[in-house]
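Lab notebook, design round three. We kept the backbone fixed and only want residue identities now. Task for the bench partner: fill in a sequence for the structure below.
Input structure tokens:
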């Protein structure tokens, strides 16, 4: 069998091809990580906005709860 892997030119060519493949894989991995990070950041912004909206409603909900408790207390007086 004629093994040409000992030929320095062929070995160099193989190393260059391997380096290009590794570089391509790294670029793909980097782009995927960037995309994942961007998606995660967008989700964090959405969650933060939702928390802010809910938090802003808490005072009104507390007032409503107090009014309901007062109404319940008044109903108990009449029964």
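Proposed sequence:
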């Amino acid at each position: 069998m004629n093994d040409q892997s000992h030929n320095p030119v062929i070995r160099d060519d193989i190393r260059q091809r391997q380096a290009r493949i590794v570089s391509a894989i790294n670029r793909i991995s980097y782009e995927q990580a960037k995309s994942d990070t961007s998606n995660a950041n967008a989700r964090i912004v959405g969650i933060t906005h939702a928390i802010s909206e809910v938090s802003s409603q808490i005072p009104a909900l507390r007032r409503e709860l107090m009014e309901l408790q007062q109404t319940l207390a008044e109903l108990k007086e009449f029964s």
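Keep this in mind before ordering anything: Residues 7-78 form one domain.
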